[in-house]
Amino acid sequence: MMRPVSLIALAALALAGCSKGVQAPTDQGVCWHMVQFQGGKVRFNRLAQNIPSLEACAAQLEAMRIRFAALGSSTDQMIGAYQGQFLFLQPEGIFTGQNLDGAHYLLLVRGPDGKLVKPGVLPVE
């Protein structure tokens, strides 16, 4: 027979295994930049408000990346969030997803000039 303390500890472990991990902020119209720290901790910094769409937030994050590059940063990857969705800035383009570790879907691709466009807009050579 298990002691009550053991049952509580077992229940806590079971709940920890079901946790959803880091959740993207859901604030309406707010674009966030996510900073990751050692040990798995994260912080969301408000980048812009009154942003009308996921694509507009992606553009805000890309502008931030470009400003950082102009200051000497070599970072070509960033993570942001918009209304519960994560945004992943990669050299190939910008991807979106519901969580950090799950599937990521292409939102915008980089053209030959480095500008971001919707997939399918670029002509096929």
Characterise this structure.
- With 125 residues, the protein is an alpha+beta fold.
- The protein has one domain.
- It contains two helices and seven strands.
- The chain has helices spanning 4-17, 54-70, and strands spanning 31-36, 42-48, 78-82, 85-90, 93-97, 105-110, 116-117.
- It has a seven-stranded antiparallel beta sheet with strand order 2-1-3-4-5-6-7, with helices on one face.
- A hairpin with a 5-residue loop joins strand 6 and strand 7 (116-117).
- The longest helix is centred in the middle third of the chain and has 17 residues, at 54-70.
SSE-based structural type: alpha+beta
- The structural domain count equals 1
Overall mean confidence score, pLDDT:
83
Low-confidence stretches: 1-19
Query: Fraction of residues in helices?
Result: 10-25%
SSE pattern: HEEHEEEEE
Shape: globular
- Beginning-to-end CA distance, first to last residue: 71 Å
CA gyration radius, whole angstroms: 19 Å
Strand proportion, as a percent range, falls in 25-35%
Biggest sheet record: 7 strands, antiparallel
